[in-house]
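Blackboard transcription, Thursday session:
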Amino acid sequence: MNNLEIAQRVDARGKSCPMPIVMTAQAIKTIQPGQLLEVVATDPGSVKDFEAWAATTGNALIESDATNGQYRFVLRRK
Amino acid sequence: MAVTAEEQLATAVATQTSPAPAPESSQETDLNRLVIVCYSGDLEKTWATMILASTAGAMGIKTTVFVTFWGLQTFVRDKKRITGDNWMQKMLAFMQRPGVDNRKLSKMNFMGMGPWMMGQLAKRYNVSKPRELLEMAQALGVEFIPCQMTMDMFGLKREDLIDGMGEPAGAATALAEMTAPHARTLFI
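(Written on the board underneath:)
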């Protein structure tokens, strides 16, 4: 899925709850509706938190994967 | 004033039942509203308030934090040591250090050793402290409303409070928000 164009990236590695979500909420305001935001985090709780955040805000969580204790999320702005 | 009690009630009801104003950005959902009553000035509860307020702001939930009683101390300027007009208010201010950085634990405070250790642990595990979360919450549009009655009783003026606080209000304002459709309330 590397062909998707990422408009903005957030590095939330090392940050614990709720900072990855807070940083994401601020970053998504800087992109246009339909554009993509990529977030990397190391907080294991962020997997469920990003699902909840996407469901509540209406932004689409189009990718969520974990490799080597690192979590990557791709969100499309509503 | 020629406004009757009935008219006032009608206005209040109309304000409550009318649909929420159109959200400023598409990031906001008008279906969700959260009211937090920040009553305690204890460190652990202040932390909970700040985590939930900042996250709610991040989730586009319209959030109001009503700051009352001991909770108000968290929002008094750190440098403002003596506040109030009479000796009782001044003594109350003297006995407790205000500000978000100076909260005490409700247990295991040990003359400040407990909060210091909490700070060290937070740093080691990259947990954001209440101050950072408070600033985030404000940046994300969470409204902090001081309780006018507490301000009067403790002799606190608006200039004694930190920047970015909303207009002081009373219980009716808080209850009107709490009973609005889709609103949830937390008393912390």
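Lecturer's comment: Strands of chain A lie at 6-12, 36-41, 60-67, 70-76.
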